[in-house]
Amino acid sequence: MNRKIFKIELKKIHWLENYGDEDNLDLCAHGKVCVTISDEIIADNSSDSNDCWSLTAMALHLLRTLELNHTSESLVGDCLVPGEGHHIDHHQNDPMVHIETVYPMVEGKNWWVIHQDNQVRLLTKSNSETIIPFEDYKYEVLKFVDKVQDFYESSKPKTLPKDEYDKDGYLKLWKEWELRRNKWK
User: Whole-model pTM?
Assistant: First the structure.
């Protein structure tokens, strides 16, 4: 039986360990997550101690899917769960940032999100399709996004990059995040 569920389980969230006590230098939250659509585990890196995904990029990409479809023709990011996000690209007049990843060379996970009326179609790489109410989808996305944001808020304030382009990209990321998150308060 195909249960109509969408679940994001945050298993672990942290800053990269190579920064030591200076976690204020790591601008991206990393960690372990498990995403389930119906009975299929779409993403799960919890068994690999060396694998930590870019949770900041994942949260922003999922926030975008509350309003936008994510399909091969219209991506909200390289993939929904990037294994690595290593640079924030941005353009002056575009409110969205692009978190550059090395997907698919560095493992990440992806599925398609398509809005239909008050429902969301989730299509996996195995060609499984699950349709859930938009409210259920939104609840799960916002629960995850808020956990990532709470982690930032409970951590040391971030030291902004000295490079103006990188600093502007980071600030623009958070501006987009806040605009998208505040739409659902």
Answer: 0.91
